[in-house]
Amino acid sequence: MFTLEIDGTAVAVINGDEETARDLFTCDGFKSDIRSMTSSGTPLWNGTSELKVRPATEDEVEIFEDALAEDDGSGDFEADPHHADAEAGDAEDEADIVFLVDIDEEDEEDDALDA
Description:
Blueprint: E1 2-6, E2 9-14, H1 18-25, H2 28-36, E3 38-39, E4 42-43, E5 51-55, H3 58-70, E6 97-99, H4 106-114
Antiparallel strand pairs: 1-2, 1-5, 2-6, 3-4
């Protein structure tokens, strides 16, 4: 497993090999996503900081495994239009990503704008 680190903060873990992790964490679609996603009102990525991909620590692997074990599959999964061209039936290329930081809900962001 590999971790995406931004400015010294572990942001996400992926259960793929290093090539898969680098490809996904540095693709334009993912970069666009992490620029628009916030944690405590701050964007996950400012668009200029280095996106460091490194082997996951034991603690990060445990968080990843716990998150997947708790996932009942009933979440708000939405297909990412940035990856719509990927081959749908290629199960070997599938990888799971778990964010290690709390992601703000869109409703929270809307409430903050209304205040």
